[in-house]
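Thread: Newbie trying to understand structure tokens

Hi all, I'm a second-year student working on a class project, and my supervisor (Dr. K.) asked me to get a predicted structure for one chain before our next meeting. I've only ever worked with sequences, so writing a 3D structure as a token string is new to me. If someone could post the tokens and maybe explain what I'm looking at, I'd be very grateful. Here's the chain:
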Amino acid sequence: MATHPNKKFDYKLAEFFKVFFQGDFEDLIAFLNDHGGIDSVEEYRRTAFINCVIQSGVKPTTDRDKKNIECAKNYAKRLIDSGCDTLLKDKAGWSALDFAKRDNNVEILDLLDA
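---
Reply by user tm_fold:
Sure, no problem. This is what the structure looks like when written as tokens:
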């Protein structure tokens, strides 16, 4: 966590997804800034970037899934451009790279390799 090293988490995952599914990146950044910054974490100690990588690796079953996956990929790129730390690990020790490898998420793997 960037600004609250003694806290266990800055927000709940459900709060993150409520903002995420609205589809507005500026709202997501405002939410993160209100909760400790771009690298703030939810209860699994995952940053927004890690959650976007996980969401972008979901196998789509509906058109809504496809839209959310594309949104997650876009957000992941924009979070990197905004200066997020791509090397942070979650509570279980997994990084965004680990999730991208698990899901064979080539687009995110390429993004992290750049």
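A couple of things are worth pointing out once you decode it. The mean pLDDT is 93. DSSP finds six helices and no strands in the chain. Feel free to ask follow-ups in this thread.
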